[in-house]
């Protein structure tokens, strides 16, 4: 794996372990329970993360179409930094596209299996990717615009970590 991808990749690996540890503290039968005030269950937060990462992995691996060139928009770098700051500050961000909303249709074991399969595919792609494409626009974030491979991995790690407090709140609520 290219040197500048190792840090974000390690954050993703550690982040998955953290999510599973946080969720694993709770009995399987409570993971699907939504809080009284509404919102997502523990399992739905995990599903959302899996959907985001799955979309990111498939977008990174997809070769650009010559008919639709990918270009960085003006101010893209500032929007990327702004998104990172918002995620780290715990700002609630409305899900920007319906495709990453949890449905609750997958059983827990199938969700974890999908996550593992996606991660394995992403890692294989990262290990074999041509280093010349790493700084090219590869993933279109719905708010920020096009991101490079290192930016996309950084976003995925930031996004995963952004959900830690939510998982902790849900965990405390289910313990009551």
Q: What does the secondary structure layout of this molecule look like, with pairings?
A:
Layout: H1 3-24, H2 42-61, H3 76-89, H4 108-128, E1 139-141, E2 145-147, H5 149-162, H6 164-175
Antiparallel strand pairs: 1-2
Features:
single chain; 176 residues; mainly alpha; Four Helix Bundle (Hemerythrin (Met), subunit A); two-stranded antiparallel sheet; 6 helices; 2 strands; 3% strand
Total strands = 2
Q: How would the global form be characterised?
A: globular
Elements, N to C (H/E): HHHHEEHH
CATH architecture type: Up-down Bundle
Q: What amount of the residues lies in strands?
A: under 5%
Largest sheet: 2 strands, antiparallel
Radius of gyration: 17 Å
* Oligomerization: single chain
CATH first level? Mainly Alpha
Helical content class: 55-70%
Structural class, from secondary structure content? mainly alpha
Average pLDDT taken over every residue: 92
CATH homology superfamily: dinb family like domain
List the total number of helices.
Answer: 6
How do the strands line up in the largest sheet? 1-2
Low-confidence stretches: none
- The CATH topology, please? Four Helix Bundle (Hemerythrin (Met), subunit A)
Distance between the termini: 44 Å
What's the structural domain tally?
1
